Amino acid sequence: MSNSKQLRAGLIGLGSMGRHHARVLAGLDQVELVAVVDPMGDKNGWAQGAPVLSTVEELIELGIDYAVVACPTALHEEVGLKLAEAGVGALIEKPVADTVEGSRRLVEAFESRGLVAGVGHIERCNPALISLRKRLEAGELGEIFQVVTRRQGPFPHRIADVGVVKDLATHDIDLTGWVTGQTYVSIAAHTIHKSGRPHEDMVSAVGRLSDGAMVNHLVNWLSPLKERFTSVTGERGTFIADTLTADLTFHSNAAVATEWEALQAFRGVSEGDMIRYAIPKREPLLVEHELFRDAVLGEPADICTLRQGMRTVEVATALLESAESGASVDLMTGAFAGHGG
């Protein structure tokens, strides 16, 4: 790397994600993990030997270039604003904040000061999705018709403050926009509450993207089967990404174009070849940290911006509004429409 500067980084929150951030930060080239903030201390020894402080103010006083914010979602806005006011960059765990308004305040705080800030939408660093995005950008699928995601598994006991939409569906909302390069124009959803908690445990959503593609998301934390499935279907076939194993496969549509024109009235596509791609599999969290470090160093790096993170919170909020109202939400205007709309 051309830039040899050593960055001083801090970490806020030593929970189930924070401990992984600490591990990666402690071994990251050109970065020194200066200190960790957690009012609960470090009873599990996760801080990698870094001093453990009880407040964000103490961390700021040590003089840092950026901080990773891995405290509960409800605290993201308060912590982020303190960092922005102190001129410190921030990599904030997803979702960026628990409300659209909070997300917007964070965007304004960091952008107005010209600070580097990003959101930890880790799926952007999954090898299968990186490969899929490159292939879609290169036009390998032709026109995109549909994106389908399934994200399910047992209840994660780390989560106390949000439901399945903000904890898990935000991954799918962000990755769908990122791999296709499209934005959501409408969303309709149903949710179920089954675990006796105040938040939803299951969601089924259907939406439309800006270039006309249809999207379906099924998300729950009530299934003993752990699944992380993304499929993109278009003119030339279907890509399937498994982000648990980081595998990407392509099922090609064998119907040739000339035959297709004549037969499409009465026949679907025919089954073609299946290709499994060999992909170098680096740890997504390490890739995310390298990209953010490079951005802080002023190098070009494809990080998830706070503005993109805010858009994901907008879609997630619309999804919950739709489930409550029984109507489809138009994301261009914010208006409700009938479920057929």
What kind of sheet is the major sheet? 10 strands, mixed
Tell me the distance between the termini.
51 Å
Radius of gyration: 21 Å
- Class of secondary structure makeup: alpha/beta
User: Percent of residues in helical segments?
Assistant: 25-40%
Strands, count: 16
Please summarize what this structure is.
31% of the residues lie in helices and 27% in strands.
Description of the structure:
α3 packs parallel to α4, α4 packs antiparallel against α9 and α5 packs parallel to α6. The strands form two sheets. Strands 14-13-12-11-7-10-9-8-15-16 form a ten-stranded mixed sheet. The model has no long low-confidence stretch (mean pLDDT about 90). The protein has about 350 residues and is of the alpha/beta class. The protein is about 30% helix and about 25% strand. β9 and β10 form a beta hairpin. The protein contains nine helices and 16 strands.
What labels would you give this structure?
single chain; 10-stranded mixed sheet; 31% helix; globular; alpha/beta
How is this fold's topology laid out?
Layout: E1 7-12, H1 18-26, E2 31-37, E3 52-53, H2 56-61, E4 66-69, H3 76-85, E5 89-93, H4 100-112, E6 117-120, H5 127-137, E7 144-152, H6 164-180, E8 184-192, E9 202-209, E10 214-220, E11 227-234, E12 237-242, E13 247-253, H7 257-263, E14 271-276, H8 284-296, H9 306-325, E15 328-330, E16 336-337
Helix pairs in contact: 3-4, 4-9, 5-6, 6-9
